[in-house]
Amino acid sequence: MNAYTAFAYVYDEYMDNIPYDEWGQYMIGLLKELGVKAGDSVVDLGCGTGTVTRMLEKEGYDIVGIDMSEDMLAIAAERIEESGQDILYSCQDMREFELPFKVDAFTSIGDSMNYITSKEDLESVFRCVAENINDGGVFVFDLKTIHFFRDILADNTYAENRDESAFIWDNYYNDDDKNNEYDLAVFVMNEDGSFNRYEEQHFQHGFELEEVKEAAANAGLSVLALYDAFSKDAPKPDSERVYFVLQK
After folding, report:
1. CA separation for the pair 137, 40 (Å, rounded)
2. Is the pLDDT score of 52 beyond 60?
3. Triad 156, 45, 160: Cα angle to 5°
4. N or C end of the chain: smaller count of CB under 10 Å?
5. What is the mean pLDDT of the chain?
6. Alpha-carbon Rg of the chain, whole angstroms?
7. pLDDT at 45 over 70
8. What is the pLDDT of residue 21?
9. Alpha-carbon torsion 152, 153, 154, 155, what sign?
């Protein structure tokens, strides 16, 4: 089963422990410092169910969300129908997306960029960004670190049980290729109280920071800043997440 199909429908429920407000405000603060102001156009890559796009729209940005999961985008569309917000969603692969106009900024947080599992594909993402962004435009994104995959997630199993759903998540990290595999079993309750089981496989990659810098340079983007997440400090050996700021 493709990633984020069955799990898409319980994704927000299980992500309720993620401090998206804090993450979003940190990213929005970076955008404002970089001169990206209300009314400017911003594209969110790997937007999922649209949590970040809705935050950005509330700040006055003209928003487009891109994701390759039709199921996640269907939920994102339902959310804006409920909220009355004006956001455009497009089902595309971030490695080869197209836009009808150039935009002022790109964002991608919540480790969506870790789903890019090779340096070549990462460079493809950066080239698409470079082709679709205005001169001087910025790309703000985060990445889980190799330390996080290797030393924290590692070969562990996680499980959670809720009233109408449950999941079991087996995690495997391969230090040879820096790939992290999530084997996910999702149980969703039917109206009669029975459960359907769905299985998904997710892969994420841990990038060396120098690899990311080189891929950006090859795509014609420069690295303006690199931060230990949610601070203005330089990344440390034990950083679990880092933020990149690239510019065309």
Report:
1. 10
2. yes
3. 30
4. N
5. 92
6. 18
7. yes
8. 86
9. positive
Contact 50, 65 (CB under 8 A): yes
Residue 218 clears pLDDT 90, i.e. is over it: yes
- Which residues partner with 222 through β-bridges? 247
Q: Which residue is listed with tokens 């290797």?
A: 150
Nearest to 79 by CA among 57, 52, 107, 50: 50
Q: How far is CA 135 from CA 65, 127, 145, in A?
A: 21, 14, 29
User: What pLDDT band is residue 12 in, cutting at 50, 70 and 90?
Assistant: low
Cβ 212 vs Cβ 205: under 8 Å: no
Segment 145-173 shows an average pLDDT of 92
Q: What's the token pair of residue 103?
A: 């935009």
Q: Where are the beta strands (DSSP E) in 192-240?
A: 195-205, 222-228
* This prediction's pTM: 0.92
Spatial distance between the Cα atoms of 57 and 65, rounded to a whole number of angstroms: 11
